[in-house]
Amino acid sequence: FAMFNYIKRNPTYHLTVVGAGDKERALNYIKENNVPLDNISFIGEVPYSELPHIIAEHSIGYAAGTSIIECAQQGIPVIMALQYNANKPFKRDICGGLFYKTTKGNLGEDMCIFSEDTIKTTIDEAITEIEEDYTLAANRCYEYVKNEYSNDKNFEEYLVRINASTQADTCRISVPVSNAIRRTLFFKSNRI
After folding, report:
1. SS3 for 113?
2. pLDDT exceeds cutoff 80 at 127
3. What is the pTM of this model?
4. Left (φ > 0), alpha (ψ -120 to 50) or beta: where does 156 sit?
C-alpha cells in the first residue's frame, strides 16, 4: 500500500491502477487510511494490445514482473514494486528502487522478501530521484531493458530454478502479493 500512502502525501500525483488485483482490499485500505480517492483510478484489466497506449499516457511506472518490461519499453521510468506477505504488509513505504539499478534481468524475483529491514529505498526517494532528472531516469530504464534484459537468457535461468526446486508446502507459507494489486500501477502527474 506504499503507493496509496504516497498519493495521500502528494496530492498533485494521480495513480492509475491497472489489472485484476484485489480492488476491494485496496479500497478498504484507502478508506481506512483517508487516502483521497479523487487521485486514484481503477481501470481493471485491459486488452494487452491497449496496454502500451495506457502506459504511454503516464509519467512513472510502478510495477513487478513483466509489467516492468512493458513500462520501460514505453520510455517511462519504472519503480519496482515489492512482494510482501498479504497478512503482514510493510510498515514503511518501501520499494525496489528504479529498475535500471537492479541486478541484470531481475523482474522482482529477488524482491520477494520477508523482512523489510533489508530494503532501504522508499517510494519518496525513488520518485525524488526521478523528479531530479526525469529524462535520465526514463532513458536509463529504457536502455536497461533494451540492452540488458534478454527473455531467452532469463527464461532459461527461470527454467533452471524451477527444475531444481521442489513443490512448496502451501500450508506453511503465505503467498506473496504485489502490493495487493497483482498487475501494474501507473502514475500521472502534473509535477513532471
Report:
1. coil
2. yes
3. 0.74
4. alpha
